[in-house]
């Protein structure tokens, strides 16, 4: 655990040395929030204020964007030779990867606070209790952890940081093809089945329901199952790939 925390601190320091990448990760969700609310919000009729509907979706997209940075940083470590130095210091691969994931959680927590503040400025008015707020944050961070482990595995799978950067576009597709920005019922028939049965939709609907005080039932079980399943599979895959890359 101490090694993982040290590796997390290292990852955060590396983030501050790439201010353009950090600024992009923080500002992209904010820009998307403004674009969706002011450019598209007037054309979307969903029976409620669009900023209330879209804010949870942008929080999910914020998590995806931040988690994708993990793929790049892991790939850079593998390509740069620093892993050999860590192994000579008896630092386990699990600690290195866990450090990247922990740093991703901390970065995403910061960006979530920023996006939430912007959403309030745009008129977002949640109707959740303190417990519901905490539950929504817990689901979001669990999703971040799962997405970060998936991104870490992807970063171990590819050989170039440029290729690892494509993880963001792959993960963002799931956010766009979900109920994050428009109701599933408005989508073409052939797309509704995919949108309803992929992880971004139950996670978004759970967070939205908790923040806006929607009555039960919420797809909480499905959201937790997706997050735990993706996280467990990605952790196992990352461990296998790390051993193969460092054998």
What would the keywords be for this entry?
single chain, about 0% strand, about 250 residues, mainly alpha, elongated
Description of the molecule:
- With 247 residues, this protein is an all-alpha fold.
- It is 79% helix and 0% strand.
- The protein has helices spanning 2-16, 19-40, 50-80, 82-88, 93-121, 130-157, 161-164, 166-176, 189-196, 200-212, 220-246.
- The protein is elongated and about 60 Å long.
- The protein starts with a helix and ends with a helix.
Summarize the topology:
Layout: H1 2-16, H2 19-40, H3 50-80, H4 82-88, H5 93-121, H6 130-157, H7 161-164, H8 166-176, H9 189-196, H10 200-212, H11 220-246
Helix pairs in contact: 1-5, 2-3, 2-5, 3-5, 3-6, 3-8, 3-10, 5-6, 6-10, 6-11, 10-11
The number of strands is 0
Q: pLDDT average, as an integer?
A: 84
SSE run: HHHHHHHHHHH
How much β-strand is present in the residues?
under 5%
How many whole angstroms does the radius of gyration measure?
A: 18 Å
Question: In short, what is this structure?
Answer:
By secondary structure, this protein is mainly alpha-helical. The protein contains eleven helices and no strands.
